[in-house]
Amino acid sequence: MDIWDDLAQRNSAHLRERFLTGDLVAEGPQNAILGSWWRSQVLNVSPDRCSPVYDPDLDLDTRLVRAADPVLDRLASMIAGTWVCVCLTDDQARILAHRVGEASFGLHPGFCVAEHLVGTSAVALALVERRPARVSGAEHFADLYQPDACISAPVRDPLSGRIEGVFSLICRLAEANPSAEAMVGEAGRAIEHRLLEQASERERALLLAYRQAKHRMRIPAGGAQFPLDLDAGSGIEIKHDTRLVLQEKAAELIAAGRPTAIEVSLPHGQTATLVCREVRTHSAVAGLAVEVVLPFGPPRRLMTSAAAVAGHLNSQPRGADAGAPSAPGLFLPYAALSAPRPTPRLPAGAPDATRPASTPVASAYPASRQPAIGASLLAIGEQGIGRLAVAARRRLTLLYEASMHIGTTLDVTRTAEELAQAAVPELADVVTVDLSESVLRGEDSLRPTALLRRAALHGIQEGLALYPAGHQISFLPSTPQARCLASGRAVLEADLHAAPGWQAQDPERVEQLLAQGIHSLITVPLCARDVMFGVASFCRSRQPEPYEDDDLALAEELAARAALCLDNAHRYTRERQLHHQALHDPLTDLANRTLLTARLQRGLARRLHDNTQDDTQLALLFCDLDDFKSVNDRFGHAAGDDLLRVTAGRLTSCARSTDTVARISGDEFAVLLEGGCVDPESIGRRILETLRVPLVLAGTVHTTQASIGLVVVDPGTQATAESVLKQADSAMYAAKRRGKGTLVVYRPELCPASAEDALRTSLTHAVRGEDGGGTLNVSYQPIIELHTGRTVGVEAALRWDDPSSRSVPHHRLTLTAQQTGLAPALEHILLDRACRDLGRYRSTGHPEVALHIPVSILDAADARFTTEVVNALTVHHLPPDALVLRVAGATHHTDQAALRALRGLAARGIRLAITYPDAEDLSFDPLLPLPVQIIVLDAAATRHLTESLTDGRTPGEEENDGTLRTAFLATIRGLGISLLGTGIADAKQAATLAHSGCGLGQGSLFGGPAPLADIPGRYPT
């Protein structure tokens, strides 16, 4: 054969080389080979780097494999000792089985040799062309297969005509044999025969009757031939969309259960005729066969219209008169028919297409030039099976339509609504979708509880007694929804009249639903990437059939597809939420400093290039609440937060939609006025009046005042956002100096009137990391183990050098921070920087050193305190016991929220210390509420204790006081609580404390505050 000829191979190699270098190749190889080369190139297949891909999950025990195994076993004995391999692939070119002689050619079960992976091959061509294919040597696209030759033939299911797989023979190019083609064809037919043996007796009997009927109905003399079946491999190329249309119509005809003929419009503007007729076996098994009359294909003499075929069918005997088997004749001479003009293309010389439709075919065409058309068996089955096929196809259509219409947006609620609409009315009469609140808000989705919110409700009837969309529902544990959430599996309630778990949710509402016809329910989890979003419930009311297992499978598939779309929408919502959080204050949801600065800078840029006064007006109101710290001290942080939220709402009510209201920090707000004619001073005065309206805080009527600084940016002004903010800040402090509750417009000569104002302004800039604020540093004082001199800890303190590089005393820094509301920010800076420094210090050979951080009870009561502590340890990779929190103040009558927070931190492994300010008041009361591990004596208490231990008794001390103090210290040691004395100034104090059982010491004796890197690991004792 030419295909194995060396000359042909050299020519193919030359053409392949030209093709790969970009030359236009229009001649030489088969059209199918050249088309495959083009497809391989479009699919980005690399000739020198492509290879099969292995699928470890491929099922190797299929119906096709069981049918082919005996055939492959017989061939194995024939190819033994040769360089030949035979293999079987499925309809996706995945190798299911193989038998080898001396070489496997790298083709093992599980590997995929599809065209998009290895390029041109006989297997891929057989699937694409739907007929036997041969590819040898240079015709392969991949270099890997150049030395080989391969012949492949598709293996079809005799009943459906569908290609189930491909049988192939592979050998070395030099050993190719022309007889291999016949062997492949024979093996393929043998596998098809064994597939038919796996069918039921009824299916085989119907197919046999159909074929016998065709054989008996040959047209006598002059061109009688068999119709060409799709399952026999006609070579007629039918496009995939055309095949789908024909198969759907065939299933509907079989389901209808009566002989008929219809014309079907095909996707590409052509028309085919489907003929449905009865076939009957000698054993009285009756069924229906559907043939397709195509407008293309090899010549056949057939009826040429649906009307003609239907008329012929109606003239055939039926029932008992028909005989057995009954097979109406379809293939008759054209002269016997009178029919409209045929739809296929006419041969050359045919009459004009405008010939009247009533013209008989015989009179319109010469006998030797009558039009021809092909016929093929399309489907065969029984009426009941046909109905199931129609139902299955409709459900596939539902899934297809759902995939097209669910997920058209990235909105979670809209996606839920699309799911509900897609399932009605094909699967359900009513659909509800219930999602967790976190999913709807775009937050991180944890496994939802039975408390969900209805995101969608859609049905074919109105007025049902279902919870409406937007309603929050707490499902009882017995309900299908709660069981579905708990198990992660779908729940089917076929009869809701006998579903007490569902009825327990709301008996009165359930009674109405049952009366309205709701009778069957499927609840399916909406889950993707192991994240549970909620549940979808499908209900039937007007469809009388209860749900069954196949409905459950369909609902699960539909929900799985919808869950992927929900996942995409949720992730988008989450990203949008994170973006919103990055630009907004979490407490008030106002714009934060970052967003305000960006909008102010944008407004300044427009103002610089546009000198018109009206349309580009730009002004900034800087608002600071007066005496806000007193609110926190008197009513607590929760009341302070309430006041901030109320203030945010009042400021927003005073601004326009085009303005930006922002919370800068603490109790500082700003209002950016942009565009339009407006008097900024009048808006500022309106804000002052609005804020003065009394409100109730913690059960007490409270009146709020604010100081406002106003900056109006002149046209053409070259300014930055930070400079405008500083000007507004200066004007605000000037308003405070005037007596608070006032508004001041910025003027260039305006400046802070006192060192205290300057200090506050500088500290604010320092906390924000801005210029003019000086520097904030952390200093450390060592904590020593008195018996060994070993450094076991350091106490961290924040030090501030103002813009003039002068060190601000610690008490002054604390007071200023409290007055400006910056204390929480400073505490955060201290904790973060100290943990960072300790992590570095421990890595240099001091792994046992602990960090002592002073905290107050008010700090611990803040809800953000625990999170900040845990985050600092996590970020800087410190173990929990590396941190000691020194709690100042009495604990036995303090806020329970603070105690709960401290206990929670102690449970994580963080150590707690209590500071005793007076050695005369040593009691166990402060220790009772908390798991304390260290008692800290401040400098005064340490001095008092050492004096009493040295002199025996201090002035005014009762005789038994010393005994009680000694007993207290002994009890403390017995409980395993360490004692730390601070303010140690000399060696005598240190020795006295060590002798009395105080194990830890801190003070000037061991060094004052210093950078952590300068603290040694041990001190002389």
Strand order of the largest sheet: 25-26-28-29-30-31-32-33
State the share of residues found in helices, binned by percent: 25-40%
Strand percentage: 15-25%
Q: What is the name of the CATH superfamily of the largest domain?
A: GAF domain
Spatial gap, N to C terminus = 104 Å
Mean pLDDT across the residues is: 78
Count of domains? 5
CATH architecture of the largest domain: 2-Layer Sandwich
* CATH class assignment of the largest domain: Alpha Beta
Cα gyration radius (Å): 44 Å
Biggest sheet features: 8 strands, mixed, barrel
Shape: elongated
Low-pLDDT segments, ≥5 res:
216-235, 298-374, 953-960
H/I helix tally? 31
Structural class of the helices, strands and pairings? alpha+beta
The number of E-state strands comes to 33
Domain EAL: 756-1021
Domain GGDEF: 616-748
Protein name: Diguanylate cyclase/phosphodiesterase
Region (Disordered): 342-365
List keywords for this structure.
1021 residues, alpha+beta, Beta-Lactamase, 5 domains, eight-stranded mixed beta barrel, six-stranded antiparallel sheet, 33 strands, elongated, GGDEF_dom, Diguanylate cyclase/phosphodiesterase, Rev_trsase/Diguanyl_cyclase, Nucleotide_cyclase
